[in-house]
Amino acid sequence: MSNVLLFDIDGTLLNSGDAGQHAMEQALLEVFGVTGPYENILAAGRTDRAITTDLFAHHKIESSETNWSTFQEAYFRHLLQSLGKLDGVVLPGIVGLLDGLAANPNVTLGLLTGNFQIGAQLKLRHYQLDHHFAFGGFGDHHFDRDDVARLAMEAACAHLNQTVPGESIWVIGDTPSDIKCGRAIGARVVAVSTGIYSYEVLEEAGPDFLFTDFSDVAAVTQCLTALSK
Ligand SMILES: [Mg+2]
């Protein structure tokens, strides 16, 4: 069967200039009147649900449905504004890589991201990458990225209307958590050091392939389109 490629967003496809962090800070201030300590909370590789839960706990904000929906509404509004204001970029090689893969009948593109689903859509739309992705696993409900990987795998099966074995899946990401969650579903992993983790740290986590960036589109495409044995 064809390969399913599950892409992370932040640090892999794009660098939003910390638009997510900025928007979370603005939303916390607007809705609850509190600031910080965002810089003390690890965000890379984690789910928005986990990051927000840490922030709520730090500020002793009750984890109620009302607080969640009010916070999310403010977060998405501020995220849209932050994306327009901050100097983000689509990372090297990504536009050509996705255009080529989208036209390749041997692969199907999806997302595996810790972002809330609406946040993921806002980021991808801002950078005009959203049209490539019809399904994915998102960080709305789960704390552990491994669970998001399972969601993404289920979404791939639903999208293709067939069982997708782990060996036909590639997870593409920029953190040790991406590598670990790929293993959790039996997938192969391509890592890239365009996020906050160095090449050496990612190498230690043992991906199948590791790139400093995706500017060598032909080499990355060759990895991702090779059919499993
Ligand atoms: Mg990432």
TrEMBL record:
GO MF entry, a single one: phosphoglycolate phosphatase activity
EC number: 3.1.3.18
Enzyme class: hydrolase
Keywords: Hydrolase
Keyword Cell wall biogenesis/degradation: no
Record-linked InterPro entries: HAD-like_hydrolase_sf, HAD-like_sf, HAD_2, HAD_sf, PGP-like_dom2
Reaction(s) catalysed (UniProt annotation): 2-phosphoglycolate + H2O = glycolate + phosphate
Functional pathway: Organic acid metabolism; glycolate biosynthesis; glycolate from 2-phosphoglycolate: step 1/1
GO CC aspect terms: cytosol
Gene Ontology annotations of biological process type: DNA repair
Keyword Hydrolase: yes
Family the entry assigns: Belongs to the HAD-like hydrolase superfamily. CbbY/CbbZ/Gph/YieH family.
Protein name: phosphoglycolate phosphatase
